[in-house]
Amino acid sequence: MMDDALPDTIALLVIDLQPDFMPGGALACHEGDAIVPGIAKLLASRRYRTVVATQDWHPPGHASFASSHPGRAPFETIELHGHPQVLWPDHCVQGTPGAALDPRIDWNVADLILRKGTHPQVDSYSAFRENHGPAGTRPSTGLAGWLRERGINEVHLCGLARDYCVLWSAQDAADAALHVRVLWDLTRPVTPDGDAPARAALQAAGVAIDTRA
After folding, report:
1. CA-CA distance, 24 to 43, in Å (whole number)?
2. Among 20, 116, 158, 172, which one carries the catalytic annotation?
3. Which range (146-155, 166-175, 204-213) has the least confidence?
4. 116 carries an active-site annotation
5. Element (H, E) at 157
6. What is the residue extent of each domain of the chain?
7. The domain over range 10-58+90-210 is classified in CATH as 3.40.50.850
8. Active site residue 92
9. Which of 21, 27, 52, 98 satisfies CB 3.0 to 4.6 Å to 160 for a cystine?
């Protein structure tokens, strides 16, 4: 990517760069740690005037944890509030080291740190909307309005995981009428099997995929 600053109308979203998603973490993404140096360099370049970081922040006993459903195992899928829900290992529990933002990044450049997944009964992959809740709706996190008030009309995304939280955030950003670009090489999937479906879903949503990061 070029070293010059981008227009003020473009924001960078750094999705869930947390130890629990790194190798050795509770919900390790494939090569999740490989993107940290590139993201650190990108943030240090100050190319983006506006930077938002999201932080998975679950209460203990969260409904998305397999441990909250007796007899169920991680990575099984159940129906939750009428929609499919992958059951995950306990991860990013509020206040634990695995839930912290990655300490190798200088987060002082972030204008907003958005915690998500805080509702005990509702998962939240996207930076823009929670997953389906008991009422069948996907409540807004308020991020789209926060960006609009700052004149942002385009977002670039990096972080974890490419096939879940990055994907859902990109789709919801496009639904919010933002121009969206995923910095593909600065993302990683839960498993490599997620790459092809994620790419197809991004393209179907009209999201640009940038492999030059």
Report:
1. 25
2. 116
3. 204-213
4. yes
5. strand 154-160
6. 10-58+90-210
7. yes
8. no
9. 21
